[in-house]
Amino acid sequence: MDIEEESADNRETHKNHDIYFVPGLRRGLLLLETVADARRPLSVSEIARRLSLTRSTVFRLTYTLRFMGFLEEVADSKSFTLGPRVLNIGYAYLASKDIIEVSRADLELLRDNTNVSAHLAIRDRKEVLYLSCVQTRSGFLSNLNVGTRLPAYATPMGWLLLSDLSSREIGLLFESSGFEPMTEQTPKSVAELMGKVSDAVVKGYVISRGVVEAGGSTIAAPIFDRNGKVAAAIDISGPDTAFDMTQIETLDVQEVVNAALRISARLGYVPKR
Q1: Can you supply a Gene Ontology BP term from the record (predicted)?
Q2: Which of 59, 82, 117, 121 is the most exposed place for a label (fewest CB within 10 A)?
Q3: Which residues, other chains included, contact 171 with Cβ-Cβ below 8 Å and sequence gap of 6+?
Q4: Are residues 102 and 36 part of one domain?
Q5: 153 in Cβ contact with 182 (< 8 Å)
């Protein structure tokens, strides 16, 4: 990411509000995003290169963020990872999301009716962010816990969460993506991804086998807000052995779709007649 690159809208906003805009704060927040996106420790030199900043500027930023607990220095490596204070803010954000509380009872009922772990997620740019996981009472426990992030292009919930975007918006969002495969069924291009999103829109749900991981199945459905926009998505997912394959495309799908509609209704959504 080049810290100097900005959209026309952002440049106009800064021009009109220079008196309020704090460049140093922006640099610090972009630095945190850069370390988070790397998913490994980054040195001052690496951060400086990624943000097109001087090493001295990055040194001051990392010093301040480490002092405040937003960064941690990895012992003997002079590199940095996110600190615990970032997690505190993340949990505070999740706790403030009404949809988590609103959906809890329906996720538990969905879990009980299908005997498979149920999840709630939203889209954060190009990723699916898991907000809730209701574990099955028996069998295999889900490893998709709160805070898990997966690429939206490679997951059924991601296809549903992208369905509010136009083809052009999806193309722009993923034009520089490498489409790193999670399984053999991962879309390999923007065109393939758009096909998955289009199918999800037509059906109103997604049934997948071996998409997120080999030997696993998922049934996902969208959650709409009062404006009819896709606010989130839910799914049940687990190993193939957790599903009764004789009813996965009938009873199980209906359970997931009905749960999604109930949650949507609580958010004020009224289906079009």
Answers
A1: negative regulation of DNA-templated transcription
A2: 59
A3: 190, 194
A4: no
A5: no
Q: Positive or negative CA dihedral for 98, 237, 265, 170?
A: positive
Whole-number Å distance between alpha carbons of 134 and 146: 10
Domain that holds residue 59: 8-88
Structure tokens at 63: 């010093």
178 and 106 within one domain: yes
pTM of the predicted protein model: 0.66
Q: Do 246 and 172 have their domain in common? A: yes
Question: How many residues belong to the chain?
Answer: 273
**Pair 153, 177: CB distance under 8 Å:** yes
Q: How far apart are CA 186 and CA 175, in angstroms?
A: 16
**Are 161 and 152 within 8 A, CB to CB?**
yes
Is the per-residue pLDDT at 2 higher than 50? no
Cβ-based neighbours of 164, under 8 Å, separated by 6 or more? 229, 230
User: Whose structure tokens read 């997912």?
Assistant: 237
